[in-house]
């Protein structure tokens, strides 16, 4: 796509210069830097960026795939609503994630009306086209996707439109990773487009409290190498600050309009993350004023809250950035994108899926 | 779903813009943008909603910043 060429930062000359600088800032001890974004993992794997990192510098994906972190209970709720006769609209990958018993795609094979949409606005169109049916938008995604859900909730949707919110927030997840007992995280690359919405300032309290460098990173190869360099420089200089390596898309305050939409439609609530458990304040609950459109309240169904862990799957550790996909004995053998065992292989942004497609660590 | 690409605005109608992504025209809602949009602007789009206007000039500044880093590093 040539029209976006001005935004493609891929030239090998600058990448080599950055790699040389990275070697100069290489730390004496091995360090693990964690990003929380499937798009970062794709760029790292696709462009072989791990081969440009100095020895001892690891960059791993944490809980950066919204599809992967959606807990089984939420999936089971969606499956039950679909089998109960609702039209269930959601993003493509969600239909293939295993719940306790069924995926949404399997529910569809049993006659449920499950539809893939590209946007919350599409789900509202479905509701308008089928006034006699209950239409549920199963909403997943981080601060990038949630403003769209908020916008349609606030835009007087029809009475037969409901949101099943599994939206999640990134800063509480970073704090939870840092609080985990076996923390070995030297620094974070903050996800560029989540940061476009919430602003660089959203990470300042975490960087200060946990003494950890957090650098906002874009998605082009040069963006990512530059952000890693800034983390290494902070480590070398003993600083733990928030730096913005993606100023062309991220400001200190972020997208204030999108933040307003989020505040008007949702309130922060505790939320379960698959593999990690409950994280306080990390979910978005539909506000009381909009409860008539909240599937959780208006369309209650019974689900087991237990967590289904496929036997042998190490997705939980992958999501905690404590393991990489190739540490899992099922990776590439019993678990592939066509026959996924765990959620990290289903979501196109899941680490296992990305490593399967692009090779992951072998690029080293 | 999470992928956001810069797209160029072809037409604007109220809070909906038409953009072309890889040659395919699609509609983008502008509710979450909080600023005006004109034909020719670049937008960062997530799941059907624009979340930011992009300026090619800013992109050039980042590259200039990198080059400065290379020439000033010890
Ligand atoms: S390769 Fe499959 S089974 Fe192994 S951790 Fe990843 S998703 Fe789970």
What's this model, at a glance?
The complex is a heterodimer of chains A (364) and B (74). With 364 residues, chain A is α/β, with parallel strands linked by helices. Chain A is 37% helix and 17% strand.
Specify the overall morphology of chain A.
globular
- What is the general shape of chain B? elongated
Spatial order of the strands in the main sheet of chain A? 2-1-7-8-9
Q: What topology, given as strand order, has the largest sheet of chain B?
A: 3-2-1-4-5
Beta fraction of the residues of chain B?
35-45%
Number of strands of chain A: 11
Oligomer: heterodimer
Helices of chain A, by number, come to 16
CATH fold naming of chain B: SH3 type barrels
Helix content of chain B: 10-25%
- How far apart lie the N and C ends of chain B? 42 Å
- Unreliable sequence segments of chain A: none
* Tally of alpha and pi helices of chain B: 1
Classified in CATH, the superfamily of chain A is HypD, alpha/beta domain 2
Radius of gyration of chain A: 20 Å
Mean pLDDT of chain A: 91
- Given helix and strand content, the structural type of chain A is alpha/beta
Most residues in contact: chain pair: A-B, 51 and 40 residues
| N→C terminal distance of chain A | 29 Å
Named CATH architecture of chain A: 3-Layer(aba) Sandwich
Estimated structural class of chain B: alpha+beta
């Amino acid at each position: 796509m040539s029209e976006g060429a001005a935004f493609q930062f891929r030239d090998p000359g600058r990448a080599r210069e950055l790699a040389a600088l990275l070697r100069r800032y290489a730390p004496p001890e091995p360090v693990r830097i964690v990003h929380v974004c499937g798009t970062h993992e794709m760029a790292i794997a696709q462009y072989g960026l791990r081969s440009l990192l100095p020895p001892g510098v690891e960059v791993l994906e944490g809980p950066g795939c919204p599809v992967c972190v959606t807990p089984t209970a939420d999936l089971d709720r969606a499956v039950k609503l679909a089998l109960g006769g609702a039209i269930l609209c959601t993003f493509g990958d969600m239909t293939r994630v295993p719940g306790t018993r069924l995926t949404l795609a399997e529910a569809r094979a049993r006659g449920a009306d499950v539809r893939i949409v590209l946007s919350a606005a599409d789900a509202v169109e479905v509701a308008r086209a089928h006034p006699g049916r209950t239409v549920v938008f199963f909403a997943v995604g981080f601060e990038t996707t949630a403003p769209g859900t908020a916008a349609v909730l606030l835009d007087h949707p029809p009475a037969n439109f409901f949101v099943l919110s599994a939206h999640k927030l990134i800063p509480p997840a970073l704090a939870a990773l840092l609080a985990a007992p076996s923390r070995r995280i030297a620094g974070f690359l903050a996800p560029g487009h989540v940061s476009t919405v919430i602003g660089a300032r959203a990470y300042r309290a975490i960087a200060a409290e946990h003494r950890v460098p957090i650098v906002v990173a874009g998605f082009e190869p040069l963006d990512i190498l530059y952000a890693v360099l800034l983390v290494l420089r902070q480590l070398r200089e003993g600083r733990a600050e928030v730096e913005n390596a993606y100023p062309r898309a991220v400001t200190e305050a972020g997208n204030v309009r999108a933040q307003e939409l989020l505040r008007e439609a949702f309130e922060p609530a505790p939320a379960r993350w698959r593999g990690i458990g409950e994280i306080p304040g990390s979910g978005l609950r539909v506000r009381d004023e909009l409860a008539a459109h909240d599937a959780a309240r208006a369309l209650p169904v019974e689900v087991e809250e237990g967590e289904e862990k496929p036997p042998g799957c190490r997705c939980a550790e992958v999501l905690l950035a404590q393991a990489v996909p190739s540490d899992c004995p099922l990776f590439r053998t019993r678990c592939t994108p066509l026959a996924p065992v765990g959620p990290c292989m289903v979501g196109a942004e899941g680490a296992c899926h990305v490593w399967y497609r692009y090779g992951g660590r072998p690029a080293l | 779903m999470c992928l956001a690409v810069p797209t160029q605005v072809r037409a604007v109608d109220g809070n909906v813009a038409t953009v072309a992504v890889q040659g395919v025209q699609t509609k983008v809602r502008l509710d979450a943008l909080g600023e005006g949009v004109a034909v020719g602007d670049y937008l960062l789009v997530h799941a059907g909603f624009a979340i930011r206007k992009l300026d090619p000039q800013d992109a050039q500044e980042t590259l200039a910043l990198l080059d400065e880093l290379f020439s000033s590093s010890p």
